Amino acid sequence: MGPLAEQIARLVKAKPRREIGTKLRDVLMQFDRASTPPRFSLIAVLNDNSDRDEVRVWLADIALAVPEHLGIVDVIEAATASEISLELVETSYPADVSGLTWRPNSPNPDGAI
C-alpha cells in the first residue's frame, strides 16, 4: 500500500488542488487489499461550512489521477467530524503520509490513526 498511499498524498497536496484542501480538516484513506489492484476509499473531513459536492468532485479528481496499476477508487465521501464514526477513524490513514512508516513485509504502516 505504500506507493498507493504516497501517490494519493502527493495528489492531495498538489498545488492545483491545494485551495480546496486547505478548507478541510483532513482527508482519510482506506484500502481493500483483497483485490488486485487494490481498491481505495477517500473520505474528506469537512469544516462545517464546506460544500460537500465541491469536495466530492475534488476527491474524484484526485482518485482519477491515481494510476490504475496502483489502485482503483471504491468510495468517495465527504462528512463533518460529527458525522464520522470512531470506527472509520480507527480504520483509516491520513492522506498526509509523512507520519507513517511503511515496513517491508508488513500489511499496515506504523503511525496509522
Overview of the molecule:
- It is a single chain.
- The chain is α+β, with helices and mostly antiparallel strands and 113 residues long.
- The protein is 30% helix and 25% strand.
- The protein has one domain: Alpha-Beta Plaits (2-Layer Sandwich).
- The chain has helices at residues 2-13, 18-21, 52-64, 86-90, and strands at 24-32, 39-46, 72-80, 93-94.
- It has a four-stranded mixed sheet with strand order 3-2-1-4, with helices on one face.
Keywords:
113 residues; alpha+beta; Alpha-Beta Plaits; four-stranded mixed sheet
CATH class: Alpha Beta
Terminal CA distance: 15 Å
Kindly report the spatial arrangement of strands forming the biggest sheet: 3-2-1-4
Number of strands: 4
Question: What is this structure, in a nutshell?
Answer:
With 113 residues, the protein is of the alpha+beta class. It has helices at residues 2-13, 18-21, 52-64, 86-90; strands at 24-32, 39-46, 72-80, 93-94.
Outline the secondary-structure elements:
Blueprint: H1 2-13, H2 18-21, E1 24-32, E2 39-46, H3 52-64, E3 72-80, H4 86-90, E4 93-94
Parallel strand pairs: 2-3
Antiparallel strand pairs: 1-2, 1-4
